[in-house]
Amino acid sequence: MNSAAPGAGLAARGLRPVAELAKNRPHGDRLRYMAGCRCQECRGGNTAYEKSRALARKAGDWNGLVGAERARAHIAHLSSRNVGRRTISDVADVADTVLSAIISGAKTKIRAATERAILAVTEEAAADHALVSAGPTWELLDELISGGYTKAELALQLGAKMPALQISRNQVTVRNAHEVRLLYARLQLIPAGPTLRLISELREEGFRLPLIERRVAALAAEIGLPTPDLTVRNGRIQGRAANLVERVHAILTE
Description:
Blueprint: H1 8-12, H2 18-22, H3 30-34, H4 40-58, E1 65-67, H5 69-80, H6 85-92, H7 96-104, E2 109-111, H8 112-119, E3 131-133, H9 135-146, H10 151-157, E4 171-173, H11 174-187, E5 189-191, H12 193-204, H13 209-222, E6 236-238, H14 239-252
Antiparallel strand pairs: 1-2, 3-4, 5-6
Helix pairs in contact: 5-8, 9-11, 12-14, 13-14
């Protein structure tokens, strides 16, 4: 008989317990049901989830777990045709870390949608100028724009000589998709409230804003990152800047 506490298996693998993940979720969310709540809303939410899974299977859009062997073999085939892992990542929109785990054998099971995306990659993706759907690229750009970045700013950040974002809404090259993903990772915006509260606490402790900014810049340089942008745009701030502020706050208030 297994007497381990609920969630112990997850914790052993470095994952947060279901109860913790469900704590701030509303009733009706399936995580609440998985954590043990059996109220009417949670039962209804779980039933709706199971129905959607059944419909997805019928529509060929099932996303359960499958063996990684077919994906691994296809990646090897593409590699023999000079289609590298990073190119596959860009075209399939599958994280490079996931592909690495599939190749090494560390990941033996993957989601069906991940397998479909990998198997859909062809040898034509070998060239940086191969065209892929612009949808995922524009999702990232639109999020940055809604967060306060202008198209002109983004164009210059992407290396354009003129402040004009000349990227098609239909198709983009593999190279452009990759560059936008890198840019998004660098500029990704999150709610600025927690960061501003940390800065306010430091100022109340007597640390002046220029000093805080210098400490953040110094920490970024120390770990090999560019100087972060602490500008607040529409109530949001760069995620990388927020992380650095949190670390500086911890250092200065030890």
